[in-house]
Amino acid sequence: MPTRTARTAWNGTLQEGSGQVELTSSKVGTYEVSFPRRAADEAGGVTSPEELIAAAHSSCYAMQLSALLGEKGGVPQSLEVSADVTLEPDPAGGFRISGIALTVRGEVEGIDAAGFAEAAEAAKATCPVSKALTGTQIMLDAALES
Question: Is 73 in contact with 46 (CB distance < 8 Å)?
Fold first, then answer.
């Protein structure tokens, strides 16, 4: 399996500086990062490590859930997955990711709500990004839609 690479170039202090994150392997883009924007309610046109983790987690989870539904005989028509990653002050100092809330809504042929819920929980436990984030509370809200 391949190794994927991203690179960040940072200039300046934490509060006054800024950086650029380059998605090196895919070459799909370079994105601005800034600590003041990271800690603000509005992102102001820049991304953050938490948003990048949310993107990684939601896409990984969708792929894993699709695989598990297929193993159960389901045929996913659509899966809409969002991940909300929360940054907060760490009582030990600095900051920490305090939790991730995954929300999934799916349209799946050949599976009932109980089967969907079972696959959704299993995907939360087994997607590689969830495994990498062991130690972070991951909540799940999953629903099969008709």
Answer: no
Q: 65: which DSSP letter?
A: H
Tell me the C-alpha distance between 96 and 43, whole Å: 18
Q: Which helix (DSSP H) or strand (DSSP E) does residue 19 occupy? A: strand 18-22
Q: What share of the chain is helix, strand, coil (3-state, %, to 5)?
A: 30, 35, 35
List the beta bridge partners of residue 11.
18
pTM of the model: 0.94
The predicted-structure confidence for 13-68, as pLDDT tens digits, reads as follows 999 999 999 999 999 999 999 999 998 999 999 999 999 999 999 999 999 999 99
Condensed to tens digits (0 to 9), the pLDDT of residues 67-85 reads 999 999 999 999 999 999 9
Q: What whole-number distance in Å separates Cα of residue 94 and Cα of residue 72?
A: 44
User: CA-to-CA distance for 126 and 16, rounded, in angstroms?
Assistant: 39
**DSSP-derived secondary structure letter, 47:** B
Beta bridge partners of 103: 82, 141
- Any bridge partners for residue 80, and if so which? 105
Instruction: Say if strands 75-89 and 30-33 run parallel, antiparallel, or are unpaired.
Output: unpaired
